Amino acid sequence: MISAKRKLKPTGDLMKIIADLHTHTNACTHAYSTINEMVHVAAEKGLYAIAITDHGRAMEGAPGAYYFESLPLVPKVIENVRVLKGMEANIIDFEGNLDASDTLLSKLDWIVASMHTITLPHKPDVEKCTHAYLQMCKNPHVNVIGHSGSPYYAYDYEKVIKECANTGTLVEINDSTFTGFRADAVPNCRKIAQLCKKHGARVVVDTDAHYMTRVGEFSNAVKMLTEIDFPSELVVNSSVENLKQYFSEKNIEI
Question: Fewer CB within 10 Å, N or C, the chain?
Fold first, then answer.
């Protein structure tokens, strides 16, 4: 059993984030820690859960053949932390298609879907990106829209966030955006969060950690949410109860 009573380190005035649900391991050539190292840090920081979401195969340096097919062999619980086996799938066209089959996605616990310039290099426009996200929201295997604040992939935020609220698709607030990695996306991320609050779309606060020390470091994202008075009940990983409720909705094993 996983303990839900660990004393968590505070991450900000608004809420405590109890799970990091977008992380990468050295199965990707641009990340540098093993699954066990990532989980160990999650355990040290008192997290309830972590999702291992290495990049889908369209990304340069993605894991090799059979990695995702074999990922379910990883234990469900390591060091008292619930380990979700997942993928950051790449949106590969403006129809919202992903670089993984439905059969593969159905075998994993947690799917983040994101746009990257390496895997979607065609010159986008707002209409195309909006259509892609709206189509992707129809995919029952996708849990989260990942780091969608990039100005390069700007979309009709109002329209897509309303659809996320309708379909139950989570919108990611990615802490790495605020560390300088995607600094140009910060204003859009704030706007996205405000629209999620307006329309009742649920969010998930993640680190997108590519090295173990970044796991569980949510303070920048939490600070922004605090500034806009974002309700914790709309943050699925703000409490064990919220997360378990989401798991129940999506038939994810607790």
Answer: N
